Every structure is written in structure tokens, then in C-alpha cells.
Amino acid sequence: MVRQRPTASLFVPAGGSLDDLREAASGCTACPLYADATQTVFGEGAAGARVLLVGEQPGDKEDLAGAPFVGPAGRLLDEALAAAGVDRSEAYVTNAVKHFKWTRKGNGKVRLHQKPNAAEVTACRPWLEAELEAVAPEIVVCLGATAAASLLGNEVRVTRDRGRWLSSDLAPRALATIHPSAVLRSVDEAARVEAFDGLVADLSLIPPALAG
Known about the structure:
It is built from 9 helices and 6 strands. The protein has helices at residues 18-25, 60-65, 72-84, 118-135, 145-152, 158-161, 180-184, 189-203, 206-211, and strands at residues 51-55, 91-95, 102-104, 111-113, 139-143, 173-177. It starts with 17 loop residues before the first helix and ends with a helix. Helix 3 (72-84) packs across helix 8. Strand 3 (102-104) and strand 4 form a beta hairpin. The chain is of the alpha/beta class.
């Protein structure tokens, strides 16, 4: 007999508003990540937002602030959205995993990001599903491979499928692109500019779709 791993479904209030969900998520212990995180980092934005953006997980700055995309990757995302003509204040921004997974660098105080595994992403998925239900966006944007796999399936490849609309029952339109942190990890300035321009080009699909 295969033992099913616990998921956040035990903590998600049925039909809850975003405020209800945020409050409930603050006490989630569905996976071990909560033990080493400062706090749950839930999504941010309004119900009824037409665009919902999903990243991988909160980083160090987000873990401390309790808000998504407020660190270096968040600032770069803001730049890319502005360049693409998308107002972040009118979007809902969240992550596939709500707790920061990290390891300490040597004996120092620096906390290094670790990619969440499949079990951790699966455990957290009920929160993401509840956010989608509460927000009911017209467009879902998956930022990076973890978000794309969580919402669109493992068959989606960001490098292959980015820059075009994908079919999904999550929203009328779905889009996969790179995570802003991929731009920050570029090996040199030329690569950084190329990666940023590619992210902007993908996000630039959003305004015409909303207008249409």
C-alpha cells in the first residue's frame, strides 16, 4: 500500500477569501519547510486581478518581509513588467511554494536558496489552487520551471514553450517564461541584457491579450 504524503488541503478553508486563505496559510505545516522559515509568504494582490504571476518560492528577503517578490528578483520583475506595459499593482503575485527553502553557506549567516523538491511543491499546491479560485484571473504567468511544472505539468519546458499562449484549465490563457532570478544569474552583462529582453518580450504578450 502506497502511503500518501500530506498536503496543505488539510489547512485550506473551503471557499475562503484571500484574507481567509492568508490567515490559514500562516499556520500551515503540510511539509517540513515551515520549520526553518521565518514565516509563510502568501500571495499579494486583489481578488479579481486579471493577471496572476507564479514564481518558485520566496527568497531570503521575502522570507524576512513576509511578501512575495520584494528582493532583487522582485525588483527586476517590476522593471520587466513596466517595460512590457503591465501594471504590477493590478496583478496578483505568488509562488508555487510558500516557505523559503535554504541552506547556510559555510559557517556564515548567508542563507542560500535551495530548489524545492516535487513533494514540497505537491504539498503546497492546494494553496495555489485556492488562490486561483479566489482570484479567477484571465491570464496565468508561470515564472520558471518549478511554477510551470506545478501548474501546467511536467511536459511543459520553459525554454521550448515560452513566448506563446499555452492551453490550461487554470485560466483562459497561460504563459510560461523564465524566472527573473535567471536574468540575475547571467554570466555577463550581454547575457543579462539578452535574458531581460526575452523576459520582457514574453510579458509583452499580456497587454494585447487583455485588450482583446
